[in-house]
Every structure is written in structure tokens, then in C-alpha cells.
Design a protein that fits this description.
single chain, mainly alpha, 6 helices
């Protein structure tokens, strides 16, 4: 694209045109800059929401685990199971209705005894909000860190832009092949010189015509005499 500007004599048209290009480029750059900054901020908010949701889900899982331990504590107290106990260690009445478990891992939690369960519950409560992390949480946190670095670089770029030359800002938006430059100064005609040349040329031309006329008349006279 080529931009042309006609301007009257005495006006710095090249400076006006270059300033117009620089100002327009700066405006476009600022709009693009603001648009990208807004988009990046929106992405930061989205990632932050996702991170909070993931951590809230992990906290809910821990709360459910605490609730299960509380229930096991209640049952263990009702059965007076103070320490870890196997089903066959219960009294006769309890053994009559007990379930035979082939694996210790299949035992309900209350067989751990309420003392052990209370210690487990207290540990779960103390770490309820600590280390809420899984792969999704880590991925979100990495994305947030990356977006935050972009946001910081945008802020630094905006602050440094004020110290840049207009032409440097212009080059960020458009590729300027050639800036406008002052046109060559027109040379005004020398009127006295032109007048003198006109007189000289006119005199020479008149003399040539006069000589040709005299020569033509002499030739006619010779022809008549013969």
C-alpha cells in the first residue's frame, strides 16, 4: 500500500505523513495490546476457577473420609472396641453374629478401635487444607504460572513502550518500506535571463530571415537579366 499526500509549498508534508503513520500504528498497537491483555486475563481467571474447583473437590473427598472415620468411631465406641481387634476376639454374644472375613483388609474400619480412629481423624482434620494437589491441580497451576508470566511481560512492555521512538512502535505493526522524505526544491525561473535570451534569439532569427530575403531578391534579379 502506498500513501500519498499533496501539500502546499512551505508545509512539512513529509513530517506530517510520517507522524500520521506513526500515530495510526501506535493506536492499532495499543488496541491489539489491550485486546490480548484482556484475553490473557480472562484465561487467568478461568484457570484460577478450575484450580479452585479441583482443590474444592479434593477437600470434599477428605471431608467424606473424615465423616467415614467419625462413623467408624461411633460404632467402635458402641462395641467398646478400643484398640485394633479381630472379630474372633469379641465376646460370645458378638461372635454369634459376626461375619467371617477372609482378609484383614475386608474388615470394617471400626475394628481398628476408636483410639486409633480418633488419631486418624485428628490427622485428617489437621491436614484438611494442606497439600490439596493431584495431576489436574498441578497442570492448572503450571498454566496459571505461564499465563502470569505473559501478563507480567505485557505490563513491562506497556511501561517500556512510552520510552520507545515512534518509528520503533510503527515497525511493530506495519512494515514500512520507505518513509516520506522532503521533495526536491523547485528552481524558480530567472526572468531577466529569459528575457535577454529571447531578445538575442529573436534578433538572430530576424537577421537570418533578412539575409534570406535579400539573397532571394538577388537571385530573381539575375534570372531576369539573363
Amino acid at each position: 500500500m502506498s500513501i500519498k499526500y499533496r501539500y502546499p509549498e512551505g508545509e512539512n508534508g513529509d513530517e506530517l505523513l510520517n507522524s500520521y503513520i506513526a500515530e495510526t500504528s501506535s493506536t492499532v498497537w495499543s488496541r491489539l495490546h489491550a485486546r490480548f491483555a484482556a484475553y490473557n486475563q480472562a484465561q487467568l481467571m478461568r484457570l484460577d476457577i478450575n484450580l479452585n474447583l479441583e482443590q474444592a473437590a479434593l477437600r470434599t473427598e477428605r471431608e467424606e473420609e473424615i465423616f467415614e472415620v467419625e462413623r467408624a468411631i461411633t460404632v467402635a465406641r458402641n462395641l467398646n472396641i478400643q484398640t485394633p481387634t479381630m472379630p474372633y476376639q469379641l465376646d460370645g454374644e458378638q461372635r454369634g453374629s459376626q461375619i467371617i472375613y477372609s482378609n484383614v483388609g475386608n474388615l470394617p474400619k471400626y475394628f481398628m478401635g476408636y483410639e486409633t480412629l480418633e488419631s486418624e481423624r485428628d490427622a485428617l482434620i489437621s491436614s484438611l487444607d494442606k497439600g490439596l494437589s493431584n495431576q489436574n491441580v498441578r497442570d492448572n497451576q503450571q498454566s496459571i504460572d505461564a499465563r502470569q508470566q505473559i501478563s507480567d511481560s505485557i505490563s513491562e512492555d506497556e511501561s517500556s513502550k512510552n520510552g520507545l521512538d515512534d518509528f520503533i512502535v510503527t515497525e511493530r505493526v506495519v512494515d514500512v518500506i520507505e518513509y516520506a522524505f522532503p521533495g526536491e526544491r523547485t528552481v524558480s525561473p530567472n526572468k531577466p535571463l529569459i528575457l535577454a535570451l529571447s531578445i538575442v534569439i529573436g534578433s538572430i532569427f530576424g537577421l537570418v530571415i533578412a539575409l534570406m530575403s535579400v539573397s532571394f531578391k538577388n537571385m530573381k534579379r539575375r534570372d531576369l537579366q539573363e
